[in-house]
Design a protein that fits this description.
- The complex is a heterodimer of chains A (314) and B (439).
- Chain A is mainly α.
- Chain A has a two-stranded antiparallel sheet.
- In chain A, a hairpin with a 4-residue loop joins strand 1 and strand 2.
- Chain B folds into 2 domains: 159 residues, Periplasmic binding protein-like II (D-Maltodextrin-Binding Protein, domain 2), CATH 3.40.190; 220 residues, Periplasmic binding protein-like II (D-Maltodextrin-Binding Protein, domain 2, 3-Layer(aba) Sandwich).
- In chain B, helix 2 links the parallel strand 1 and strand 2.
- Chain B is globular.
- The termini of chain B are far apart.
- Classes of the chains: A mainly alpha (314), B alpha/beta (439).
- The interface between A and B is large, with 42 and 45 residues.
């Protein structure tokens, strides 16, 4: 019933709208358009000045040796050098690990928390707010705070562990742990968004399904497996896409906590690019950004269309 | 095609977008104020407490002498962030009227012939030492006036700890290792390392440069010409000593997370016996935190394998420059301010506020008699001909990733040979980006 209503309503709307517009604009041939084209002018001017021009300028500068004082056109040398960079392959692997770990953890933990927070829980509203709170804090602030908390000797975490007789590791100073420690903090900080999306997804599932399941005698597990999990697929898709993009281009948290260190052990593509910029290699770092853009697009566009297709099927 | 009303609307939309463009332009036009009417001098300086304090004191004294001129101190971020800001401001013509900035390779990267005003005609220029002139000059001009003293990048040590344990200043690497073992046996950290501030890890390599030059006087030129490499001797030794020190367990337990401030505090209090560092940084920090500990500190060069090669590596002071965008009355005022900073009155203020961390590089300034004892240690090496300029004053090429590579070698993540080879690659990248011939 709901679906037939939904089909009827917009149709009605459209017809009513057309009639009204016809009356207002008379015989103007552009009347079919919602707004005259040049209403777009201010917005497109801003778009061109603040987005399109810098984007195309950066494509040009990625083909130059640029000291800010001089620009020398050097063709694709920057790209060749970027791919020869000994740190690049390592940082690419780190970037993928970071993106997959944070994205996976956000999906699993976000889903679990959302299930908990949509059940009949005492203080549910409060708990939802608490879960979301870390999202509101500045990333740099979170990074610096956790850097202090995770200090191998004076940090609260390791001192607490020491109270139980456990010798805590150097979370950010052990080259094998640094990247994962930052990823954990990223999960802590970004979990609220994932949970929020999942809550919205679960709440949007029509109650009728649950009622029908209950009539058929389905237990909690069956309800989860056959109703909640498949029907919150759009939410899962959104969480995966958002967190994977965030993970692939993550920079601020890593920079605040380790600066890619110790050595190069938590370097990701974005931090390699930033270090090149810091060193004054403006053309090279611009080339790096173009590469990063292509990488993110190459991973995300097929993934997004796959997730979209699965969403439609289910 | 367009009706009258839509033409009106078009022009309204155009006006609106023009307004947006104007306000956008207004955002970017806030630059250096004052078009020369009342002479105003703004000085862009590193945001470091000691530097800001010294330049502010200079500004106040200068304004007292020249009531018509106002001087404003404008702190900017330190490190590479500041470097990029300076380059951006210079290339867009937004730089303050006076700039305090590094000499040597960083100065060369500013494209001085195009961006800075030649100062060779100034009265103080003749007093500048011959060692300093080349690090603020190009083939076409002389651009900088020194501010502060030269300083050493070497092993700063706690004299009390050395005296208590009966240790002599080590002259070669073998006696350095022996001294470290003795200090460790006494329960004191032999060598402090502070990779929480990763730049401090470079000292083992950069501060050892005097020893390389002692073994091969042509090394800097060959390095710039893509002939001498860090992966080969004598330069490999610098990385090797860093690895040896880590392997021998000379470092403090928290070397991976400690900061430079932690290291300086440990050195001053005697918890650590030696800390490879820039003397200027040690003195600046201790002057704030524990001035009474300064008298306990001495300095010696990184020891080479052979005692005869052991040479102190010396850094040149930063300099005051005037960008080409400073003109008219402002230019005259700026030149006057720089002359004042290097007058004897200016030197007294520098001595009273700053910390003389080594010899001055201009004849008008003398280190005060009550300066830190490690300053006379430096002077004894300089006067004895056992000192050399750091590599950044002899070559424009310094790889940007040295600090990360030396953290790896100093933490046992990478071997000395692999680290040196990685740094050669890093240097190559820098040389190619600078467009230097032969790479």
């Amino acid at each position: 019933m709901a679906s037939t209503m939904a089909q009827v309503l917009p149709d009605l709307d459209r017809r009513r709208g057309r009639r009204r517009r016809k009356r207002r604009t008379g015989t103007d041939p552009f009347a079919r358009r919602t707004y005259p084209l040049w209403f777009h002018l201010p917005a497109s001017l801003l778009y061109v000045v603040l987005f399109a021009v810098p984007t195309f300028a950066s494509l040009y500068f990625s083909l130059t040796r640029w000291t800010l004082f001089d620009v020398t056109f050097i063709g694709f040398d920057n790209f060749v050098q970027f791919f020869q960079d000994p740190q690049l392959s390592q940082s690419l692997v780190h970037t993928l690990i970071y993106a997959v770990v944070t994205s996976g953890a956000k999906v699993v933990l976000g889903f679990a928390l959302a299930l908990l927070l949509t059940s009949n829980l005492i203080g549910r509203g409060y708990l939802r707010a608490v879960t979301f709170f870390p999202v509101l804090v500045s990333t740099i602030g979170v990074g610096l705070t956790f850097k202090v908390l995770l200090d191998p000797f004076d940090g609260v975490v390791n001192q607490t562990l020491a109270a139980f007789g456990i010798a805590g590791p150097g979370w950010l100073t052990d080259p094998n742990l640094a990247l994962l420690s930052v990823a954990l903090v990223d999960v802590w900080k970004g979990l609220g968004i994932a949970t929020l999306i999942y809550i919205a997804g679960i709440v949007a599932i029509p109650q009728e399904y649950f009622e029908a399941a209950r009539v058929d005698g389905a237990g909690a597990w069956t309800v989860f497996r056959s109703i909640i999990f498949p029907l919150s697929w759009p939410a899962t898709g959104t969480v995966i896409i958002l967190s994977l993009i965030g993970g692939l281009r993550s920079f601020d948290l890593i920079w605040a906590m380790t600066k890619g260190g110790p050595g190069f052990s938590s370097d990701v593509v974005a931090s390699v690019i930033y270090k090149q910029y810091q060193a004054g290699f403006y053309g090279l770092s611009t080339a790096g950004n173009v590469v990063l853009f292509v990488i993110v697009a190459a991973i995300m566009i097929p993934l997004a269309s796959y997730i979209g297709r699965r969403g439609v099927e289910s | 095609m367009l009706s009258r009303s839509s033409a009106l609307r078009t022009s309204a939309a155009l006006t609106a977008s023009a307004l947006v463009a104007v306000s956008l332009a207004a955002c970017s036009s806030a630059g250096n104020g004052g078009d020369g009417a009342g002479a105003e001098v703004t000085v862009s300086v590193y945001n470091e407490a000691a530097v800001v304090k010294t330049v502010t004191a200079l500004a106040e004294a200068f304004q007292k002498e020249n009531p018509g001129i106002t001087v404003t101190v404008d702190p900017r971020p330190t490190g590479t962030e500041g470097d990029n800001l300076v380059k951006t401001q210079l290339s867009t013509g937004e730089m303050d009227s006076v700039l305090l900035y590094n000499s040597g390779s960083l100065f060369q990267a500013l494209n001085p012939d195009q961006t800075l005003t030649d100062l060779s005609g100034e009265s103080w220029a003749a007093d500048v030492s011959d060692g300093f002139k080349p690090v603020v000059s190009t083939d076409a001009g002389f651009y900088g006036a020194p501010l502060g003293t030269s300083y050493a990048g070497a092993v700063v040590y706690n004299k009390k700890v050395f005296a208590d344990l009966g240790i002599e200043v080590p002259k070669d690497w073998a006696s350095f290792t022996a001294a470290a073992a003795k200090i460790k046996a006494a329960g004191i950290t032999p060598v402090e390392q502070t990779y929480g501030d990763s730049w401090t890890s470079q000292l083992f390599v950069l501060g050892d440069f005097g020893n390389i030059l002692a073994q091969d006087p042509q090394w800097a030129e060959e390095y710039t010409a893509n002939k001498a490499k860090y992966a080969d001797q004598p330069a490999l030794t610098s990385f090797q000593h860093l690895q040896d020190a880590f392997d021998a367990g000379m470092f403090n337990q928290d070397f991976a997370s400690a900061t430079a401030a932690d290291g300086i505090a440990a050195l001053g209090s005697g918890k650590a016996a030696m800390y490879p560092m820039l003397t200027q940084v040690v003195l600046g920090q201790l002057a704030q935190d524990a001035p009474d500990q300064i008298a306990d500190l001495g300095v010696f060069p990184f020891p080479a394998d052979a005692a005869a090669d052991t040479t102190l590596t010396v850094w040149q002071p930063s300099a005051l420059y005037i960008p080409k965008t400073t003109e008219g009355a402002q230019l005259d005022a700026a030149k006057k301010f720089i002359a004042f900073a290097n007058s004897s009155a200016g030197c007294d203020i520098q001595n009273a506020n700053g910390n003389a961390a080594g010899p001055y590089v201009i004849d008008t300034c003398k280190v005060p008699t009550d300066a830190a004892p490690l300053v006379s240690d430096i002077a004894s090496y300089v006067d004895g001909g056992k000192s050399a300029s750091a590599l950044e004053f002899l070559s424009p090429i310094k790889g940007p990733n040295l600090e990360n590579i030396s953290v790896e070698v100093g933490s046992g993540i990478r071997s000395a040979a692999a680290g040196a080879a990685a740094y050669d690659e890093d240097v190559k990248k820098q040389a190619q980006q600078l467009g230097i011939e032969g790479w």
